[in-house]
């Protein structure tokens, strides 16, 4: 291969590498996609009993503009550290679109709450994750802290 051929090959390789870096840099700089989050669907107050040993359901609803199948479930966290115990797909709100249903151990969620929580406090829980194309997602919902109960998840 002559010098011109080597120069073209190196130029092409460098340009390809720069394009890859630009794509990764652009995706890293993109604002997160805001998603709806519904903690304890069907409840407006979303009470969380800190003595519960049950699970906390969290739903990310699908819409005409947002297909929840594009969410990378392994990246989902609640308040940065809580991982879902299990995930499933179901049309929770009967709108014709599949929703992502997440179940979190209530004890794990309680450990993510601020230590200064009092009975009746309203706390915002933030769900984060990524789409399959590495775009970040974020959404939040409020819960009402309950400090009472028998500790049996009821």
As for the number of domains, it is 2
Q: Roughly how many Å is the radius of gyration?
A: 22 Å
Structural class: alpha+beta
Characterize the overall form. Answer: elongated
What fraction of residues sit in β-strands?
Answer: 35-45%
End-to-end Cα distance = 76 Å
Order of helices and strands: HEEEEEEEHEE
CATH topology of the largest domain, by name, is Immunoglobulin-like
Polypeptide structure, described:
There is one protein chain. The protein is 22% helix and 35% strand. By secondary structure, it is α+β, with helices and mostly antiparallel strands. The chain has two domains: 30 residues; 115 residues, Immunoglobulin-like. The strands form two sheets. Strands 1, 3, 5, 8 and 9 form a five-stranded mixed sheet that branches. A four-stranded antiparallel sheet has the order 2-4-7-6. Strand 6 and strand 7 form a beta hairpin. The C terminus is likely disordered.
How is this structure best summarized?
This protein is of the alpha+beta class.
Give the secondary structure arrangement, pairings included:
Elements: H1 3-29, E1 33-34, E2 38-39, E3 47-49, E4 55-60, E5 71-78, E6 86-90, E7 99-105, H2 106-112, E8 122-131, E9 136-146
Parallel strand pairs: 1-9, 3-9
Antiparallel strand pairs: 2-4, 4-7, 5-8, 6-7, 8-9
Offer a few descriptive terms.
disordered C terminus; Immunoglobulin-like; 154 residues; 9 strands; 2 domains; 4-stranded antiparallel sheet; 2 helices; alpha+beta
